[in-house]
Amino acid sequence: MVYLDLLLVGFGHVGQRFAHLLLEKSVALRRDYGLSWRVVGIATKHHGSAFDARGLDIVRALKLVEAGTSLDVLTGAESDRVLQPGASGLSLIRHATGESRLRRLQHLVVVETTLLDIERGQPAIDHVTAALRGGAHVVTANKGPVAFAYRELQSIAEAAHREFLFESAVMDGVPVFNLARETLPVSDITGFCGVINATTNYVLTAMEAGRGQDEALRDMQEAGIAEADASFDIDGWDAAAKTAALLNVLMRGTATPKTIDRTGIRGVTPEAVRQAMERGRRIRLVARGSRQDGHAVGRVAPEELEAADPLANLTGMQNLLILQTDVLGDIGMLQLDGGLIQTAYGLLSDMVTIAKRVGDPAP
User: Fold this and answer.
1) What is the Cα–Cα distance from 269 to 356, expressed in whole angstroms?
2) What three-state secondary structure class fits 267?
3) Which of 22, 144, 232, 259 gives 237 a disulfide partner, CB atoms 3.0 to 4.6 angstroms apart?
4) Residue 361: helix, strand or coil by DSSP?
5) Residue 191 maps to which CATH number?
6) Which of 202, 204, 195, 201 is nearest to 242 (CA)?
């Protein structure tokens, strides 16, 4: 049996859905993977923080957040009251990695789901760095660390003999990075193209049906799919961050979202959408990666696509990423349905990967 202690840094839509999924899959995790877990800490932006090395009541935590109540009341034993109320994620990570019993077990996993910062990838990069250097494994749904500091963080993880996994960063739980890492040995990824932002694809599809851009965007925000700052999606920043992550991990690039040639869909008008449809074509926000003069470069922009193009036929929240390889040709990964549960699943999948790699010493 593998025992993992989880520290949840960020407890918004994705973090809460991950907690629900943990509860829903607990029996299957123990039965099929010999994996038992407990949440020892939670740090939130608006609902306080809590830590208890013996484990927190995650069901109660979810109810407290849903009721708008602080999580500070969950911290039980006096010995654990070393955190100030509302402690930051970084403070919680440093406390947890310094806790003797958790450090001894070496099975602490930080689950990082804070919001994307498109300027520097912070504070997520600091969270990942502190966790790895403190001896914890890390799984994250945040694109920032991979898009801004992948090589540095991967080096820190390797030096610490810890895992740094991020399957949820691109296309939710679709195993993009696992596919490349585990199933494409001695195959070079030479480029990629795809529609990798569900919000903009939904908005463009809605515009084809005669709806307004703002109206469609509200649908995605109400569903918790769109970024908290809608401009991240509409102006192409989310797709640029994902493109940088793909370049860095799959093509050994050194990109950041700022180095991606980026144009969003804000300037795409209903008239442009209608005229494209009259020509039998579709406008989609397309991400592309390639090598130019030995460097991995990326581009995100609306493109008017021929009807026969697989990317043109994506509707609603569907995504498709096509990897161009030197041996297998083009490989496509299609996501027909994306959302919070798929993002949460990517985190759970990474957690299972860690459990398989760490062995099973008794607690």
Assistant:
1) 49
2) coil
3) 232
4) coil
5) 3.30.360.10
6) 195
Same domain, 38 and 9: yes
Model confidence pLDDT, tens digit, residues 110-150: 999 999 899 999 999 999 999 999 999 999 999 999 999 99
* Tens digit of each residue's pLDDT (9 = 90 or more) over 190-201: 999 999 999 999
Paired tokens of 251: 């093509």
Chain-centroid distance of CA 60 in Å reads: 25
Kindly state the tokens that stand for 315.
């509707």
- pLDDT-derived band at 102 (thresholds 50, 70, 90) equals low
For residues 145 and 9, what is the distance between their CA atoms, to the nearest angstrom? 14
Name residue, tokens 């994307």.
116
Same domain for 207 and 303, yes or no, is yes
Say yes or no: 215 and 308 in one domain.
yes
Instruction: Taking residues 6-23, report their average pLDDT.
Output: 96
| Separation between Cα atoms, residue 110 and residue 41, nearest integer Å | 9
Give the angle 102-160-345 at the CA atoms, nearest 5°: 70
- One domain for residues 117 and 11: yes
**Dihedral through CA 183, CA 19, CA 141, CA 220, nearest 10?**
110
CATH number at residue 354: 3.40.50.720
User: Which residues are known to be catalytic?
Assistant: 242
DSSP string, 251-266: S-----GGGSEE--ST
Which residue intervals of the chain are DSSP H helices? 13-33, 58-66, 89-98, 100-105, 124-133, 144-160, 176-183, 198-208, 213-222, 231-234, 237-250, 270-278, 340-358
User: Which range of residues forms the domain containing residue 140?
Assistant: 2-172+342-358
* CA geometry: angle 320, 326, 329, nearest 5 deg: 45
Contacts 24+ apart (CB under 8 A), 275-283: 276/304, 277/208, 279/304, 280/306, 280/307, 281/305, 281/306, 281/307, 281/312, 282/204, 282/208, 282/307, 282/312, 282/313, 283/204
Dihedrals phi, psi of 50, to nearest 5 degrees: -150, 150
| Number of domains the chain contains | 2
pTM: 0.92
Question: Can you tell me which residue has the tokens 């306080």?
Answer: 48
144-160 and 124-133 helices, crossing angle to 10°: 10
Would you say 65 and 16 are in contact if contact means Cβ atoms under 8 Å apart?
yes
